[in-house]
Specification:
This protein has 688 residues and is α+β, with helices and mostly antiparallel strands. 34% of the residues lie in helices and 27% in strands. The strands form six sheets. The chain has a six-stranded antiparallel sheet with strand order 7-6-16-15-12-13, with no helix packed on it. The chain has a six-stranded antiparallel sheet with strand order 22-23-33-32-28-29. Strands 24, 25, 26, 27, 30 and 31 form a six-stranded mixed sheet that branches. A hairpin with a 5-residue loop joins β15 (215-218) and β16. The longest helix is centred in the middle third of the chain and has 47 residues, at 405-451.
Length: 688
């Protein structure tokens, strides 16, 4: 279901402003523009705005203007539009609260992606479940069956794509064909740039106000036709019966119309599945005059199970002891065809329903719970297929409860609406569960980030800079710094096999185990062996950890152990590269694995570059890896740069290389600069 947002374009200059205005307007969003930051603040005071696209007046002012917006409207998502920022500046933008960053040149795809990310930061919009449905379309499907669809404010879309509120698969319909927008109680029809046009009463329109009885044609004058009705459903049905007598309605009886109307309104307002099932069964019993009824729903194993059984006193019945026909519900579910037997003794004298007659039942009615499921095929065409999710059953011991054609049609109509309502209730439940999971993951991410140190560490002789980019909300990469006796500096980088929550939990375990070991005055191989033994004893299965730990002293002596990790690289000021490989196998697989240490000597201006495999295995759109060759070339070209500059350059190179491909692994980078006085100044300048 689409939402209509009010979007403020602050400081955007052409061609960016023209592109954004046109693109968002065609999608039905309200656009507000402001030339300056001051004007934008005034707009925020006087108008309802959901999110902001901000192009700073100059690159160096981006963070200041973003912070001003965040202070002025704390819950407002802000998307920054700027030229190529450095990696460090991008990181600061994220920390300052940017919902997303669009790097020029702007495209329609970048606008859609940024809007999708920013929208996740907005409060969930719950549908107005108390408002009466005021408008609807009436149309016939491809087999000639008459259908009704409610037009729910504020925005209702029609097209071939399954993302639309009304999905039509006929030829001539565009993927996003048209939208109906509710403005101050009036319904306006807008063409969304469709190929074959939108017509109202035979006239092609771009935008027009709809009135009761208007005939809307989509995809040409002889394509799909919808009739717009405004008012209560009963009046709409009466209007049709007077104006189109040749049309046979599925429900003619006024009593049944009233019952269905009350049921439809209630169905639209109940999001909880159990309450919804009670309502459907009660409505079915009221419509048919039956003694009792039940619903069976399809389970994951494709079988049917009782979900709700009720009697005509609106009391629940125990499904485990509910005696009824077993053959009829399963036959209706398998065939998708209704079964109505008004008198078992007369209409079915065979023994096929003998067990049902023995229960004292005289009349039985069962209809499928079925709705039209729409899927997109590989060639982007839309395929509609009726999907049966269960059955609605009623029975009675009284022969006088025989059903008229009107009651049978009413029961089928109720079942059709109920099937869609049940489907929506399940989606609602899934969305609530997903929302709770997202909240838990957000908390988990905050906790995991709190376990990591500040990314920058400055000592008189060494400058350390790190960056962690998780593939999901939480990740399996780990890094840490340690202040040791004698002025020594310890640094660690680890990578848990896998990603996501399981990897994050193991990374947290590694953090605790290793932090405890650093307090021991023991050789590095002993420390790493203790960590490996602790992990292996905890039985982490086929999970393992690649790990690197080093200790650097003020004279440049560095002792290290590499436990199966991507070899860090010693970068000399002359551009020479040396990999640090001494150590042993990965952690966590074999408790008695042995490790050895290596030693190197750093000269003034040398750098140590540590990284996880997410750097080397980053993919571009051609499915190529970033690889060691690109990494080595970058380090050789930046050998005389400072640690912060190398980190920013490496991050920018990796992200640019894989800009059009989703990140598929966690990425962590650590740069250590030995005796480089300009690095500390660089970090302080960026943080200021």
């Amino acid at each position: 279901m689409n939402n209509t947002y009010s979007i403020l374009l602050a400081g955007l200059k052409d061609p960016q402003q023209s592109l954004a205005c046109g693109h968002f307007s065609r999608s039905g969003y309200q656009i507000i523009t402001a030339k300056s930051l001051t004007e934008a603040k005034d707009k925020l005071k006087n108008q309802k705005i959901d999110l902001v696209y901000l192009q700073p007046s100059a690159g160096q002012f981006a963070l200041d203007e973003l912070r001003q917006f965040s202070e002025h409207a704390t819950a407002l998502p802000v998307v920054l539009v700027c030229a190529q920022p450095t990696g460090a500046v991008m990181l600061e933008m994220w920390h300052a609260g940017a919902a997303d960053i669009i790097i020029l040149p702007m495209t329609s795809q970048s606008l859609d992606s940024s809007l999708q990310r920013a929208a996740t930061m907005l409060p969930q919009r719950q549908p107005d479940q108390t408002a009466e449905l005021r408008a609807r379309f009436r149309y016939r499907d491809e087999v000639g069956k008459e259908l009704w669809v409610n037009i729910n404010p504020p925005r209702f879309t029609v097209g071939r794509s399954s993302m639309n509120d009304l999905v039509l698969g006929q030829m001539g319909i565009s993927r996003s064909h048209a939208a109906v927008v509710n403005q101050n109680g009036e319904y306006w029809l807008r063409d969304l740039g469709s190929k074959h046009g939108t017509y109202v009463n035979g006239i092609r329109v771009e935008e027009t106000r709809l009135t009761n009885g208007d005939r809307v044609q989509l995809g040409g004058l002889h394509a799909v036709s919808l009739t717009f009705h405004q008012g209560d459903l009963l009046q709409s049905l009466l209007d049709i019966s007077q104006s189109e007598p040749e049309i046979s309605l599925s429900v003619h009886g006024f009593k049944e119309i009233g019952m269905l109307l009350a049921a439809f309104r209630a169905l639209s307002s109940i999001p909880l599945l159990d309450d919804l099932l009670d309502l459907v069964v009660d409505s079915a019993i009221d419509l048919t005059g039956a003694d009792r009824g039940f619903i069976m729903l399809k389970e994951e194993n494709e079988g049917l199970s009782f979900r709700c059984a009720r009697n005509n006193c609106k009391h629940r019945l125990d499904g485990s002891s509910f005696q009824t026909s077993h053959r009829i519900p399963h036959e209706v579910f398998e065939t998708g065809q209704r079964i109505v037997i008004n008198d078992l003794d007369v209409e079915d004298a065979s023994d096929s329903h003998g067990s049902t007659r023995q229960l004292g039942l005289r009349s039985v009615s069962c209809v499928p719970l079925r709705y039209l499921a729409v899927h997109e095929s590989a060639n982007l065409s839309v395929i509609g297929q009726a999907e049966t999710i269960g059955v609605l059953y009623v029975d009675s011991q009284d022969i006088s409860a025989r059903l008229s054609d009107t009651q049978i049609n009413a029961l089928e109509t109720l079942a059709s609406e109920a099937a869609m309502a049940i489907y929506n209730a399940r989606l609602y439940k899934e969305s609530q569960e997903k929302h709770k999971l997202d909240e838990q993951l957000a908390i988990a991410r905050e906790i995991q980030q709190a376990l990591l140190p500040q990314p920058n560490k400055i000592l008189p002789y060494v400058c350390a800079c790190s960056q962690n980019l998780a593939c999901y909300e939480v990740g399996g990469d780990y890094f840490d710094y340690f202040d040791l006796d004698g002025g020594r500096f310890g640094f660690a980088l680890g990578d848990v096999a896998g990603k996501g929550m399981s990897a994050a939990l193991l990374a947290s375990m590694l953090h605790g185990i290793f932090s405890a070991q650093t307090f021991l005055d023991a050789p590095l191989p002993t420390i790493i062996s203790n960590v490996n033994r602790n992990l292996a004893k905890r039985g982490i299965g086929n999970r393992f950890v690649t790990f690197f730990f080093g200790i650097l002293d003020p004279e440049g002596n560095c002792t290290y152990v590499n436990a199966g990790h991507n070899p860090p690289i010693l970068v000399g000021r002359d551009g020479s590269l040396k990999e640090l490989t001494e150590g042993g196998m990965v952690l966590g697989l074999f408790a008695h694995a042995q490790y050895e240490s290596g030693t190197i000597k750093l000269q003034s201006g040398d750098h140590l570059v540590l990284f996880t495999d997410g750097v080397l295995e980053a993919l571009n759109s051609a499915d190529e890896e970033f690889g060691e060759k690109r990494l080595h070339a970058l380090l050789e070209a930046n050998a005389r740069s400072t640690a912060p500059e190398i980190l920013a350059c490496l991050q920018k190179a990796v992200l640019s290389f894989s800009s059009n491909v989703p990140q598929h692994d966690d990425i962590t980078m650590m740069i250590l600069g030995f005796q480089e006085p300009t690095a500390a100044k660089s970090i302080h300048a960026e943080s200021g």
